[in-house]
């Protein structure tokens, strides 16, 4: 052990000469000194705050080799490469090594040349590795990503729970456990499993004041994503997806929309993964689209945004991944797209797990959904989740969140409801789940409620006019604002805090905030457009949209055509979102195309250009989502086959499509502005008089809706016949 008055000078000298830093950050020096004194040390420090230095620097200074237990091969390799680059002999033991490489590493460890040996928990438990480590001089053991120990955590690894047993076989050494994401319950579980309840705990604040947290509904998500990234043009960002397939799709989508992006997931060849990772680190690309396998230990300080395309499985995972933004202390935008359907899908993934694992996963998903749907400050929610007291000024210190920065129109007086909730918790001896409490408050005669006699409580049925979701929100906010405390011994329950008891004694007026409704009815305003004329409550400019509708009606009347033939409603909505001011830009709007833009577009782009100038609006035509190559090939094939008058059923069979799917593809082609001649096929299935009847209907109808057409034509024709005639009609009049 390094001791005495020289310690401080040695540490600072090593910090400067090896790592290039002039001073320690936060608790780093205290943590290092504690470990070097032989004490077990527990470090809870957010992503990007410098955890790695807490075991790397003492490993260099102390005699012998430090064992670093790490969960991912990519993480090990990245850290070993970084250490080797600054002249530190670090090695790893994992399944990627050949037998010769394995023997070389072992020899260097035993001879004392290696300062840090990174080991996967699976490798640590192998008998031959335990045997050779007994021969080595070990300085200490570092357990990185220690939350993997806990079955209550988000990345539970059963092998981690054997670490203490294996370490004891090798010898007696101080242990340093480190994690960036641990709730109070997970912290306790880590200490118990590693038998380090007496460890000195160093807990840094989980607050990242430079990060902006935002959740948007998963509506037109591809368009929102492209727009968001293009508004951060030239900046580095990560887009996280839950599946490898989605990673590939989104990476391709971004590329065809002129965004420099590459995929990263475990299914790629190791060489390709490393190449793509290096391209991101070296700024050859701007965006990496990845599964959660990417980012652990990646020390890129200038990631300006992190996007979760899919809802994460847990708040721990979400926090860890967002923590990769803004490590340099400058701006970092953390955007999550959320849909309740994501939670449903994730729950299905857990169906084959054991009951305990399934229940833990369910609780983690509930917390994730609550975070997304709540209207409370997102920073307050995150910090509460990790057991940290909230500071009222956090969301005004450079970062912030959408719930704090958007207009507040959701407050409601909560005195009566908070009082009822607290009374119910007190009267049920503070030991029942939130679901049980809500059943009491809503007056549900559920068997469990009746068996405990809780239907006799004074608060039974007192909140029957509120929904289950509203009561969940009230109880959650009661905890967030300090009236309740989590019961460490009961995952599902709450206890009253001193503040809660005080409120029961002296109830006072208090305002809570309503949750967001993401069931599809609500569309949040896009933050990027807060100064671009978009009105609250919709994703397009309502004023411009109504102007365009009036113009469409006027143009249609002049040409003697139904309005929908000119432009359909979704096309008008996109025009009121992207503000196309030229015919070329208008042609990129979905459902328009060049021929229709040239035929009808002049008055529309003139109106939009004038509106943009008068309202000082920054246009966003880059939002248009271009088709990926594979989809484009299918459309080209269909167009070519129709040109050659190939039977539609043959075309469908060639592309393994149903007739319904083929007609849908043809409709998309037609609405995008390509004229198709289906006469050769229609003439086979419909007599001329029948065609004329349908044609005349569409010519005078106010809408091209097929169900309306079937009803108006007294169900004389099939849906397929009407859809094909609608394509013929639009191709002849709108192109």
Tally of separate helices: 35
The biggest sheet, with number of strands, parallel, antiparallel or mixed sense and barrel status, is:
7 strands, parallel
Write the CATH homologous superfamily of the largest domain: P-loop containing nucleotide triphosphate hydrolases
The CATH topology of the largest domain: Rossmann fold
The termini sit apart by: 82 Å
Taking pLDDT < 50 over at least 5 consecutive residues as the criterion, the unreliable ranges are 521-538
Q: Indicate the CATH class of the largest domain.
A: Alpha Beta
Task: Give the percentage of residues in beta strands.
Answer: 5-15%
The average pLDDT value, as a whole number, equals: 83
Instruction: State the share of residues found in helices, binned by percent.
Output: 40-55%
Number of domains: 5
* Class of secondary structure makeup: alpha/beta
Secondary-structure arrangement, i.e. CATH architecture of the largest domain = 3-Layer(aba) Sandwich
Radius of gyration using CA atoms only: 31 Å
Coarse shape: globular
Placed side by side, the strands forming the largest sheet appear as 3-4-2-5-6-1-7
What is the number of E strands? 18
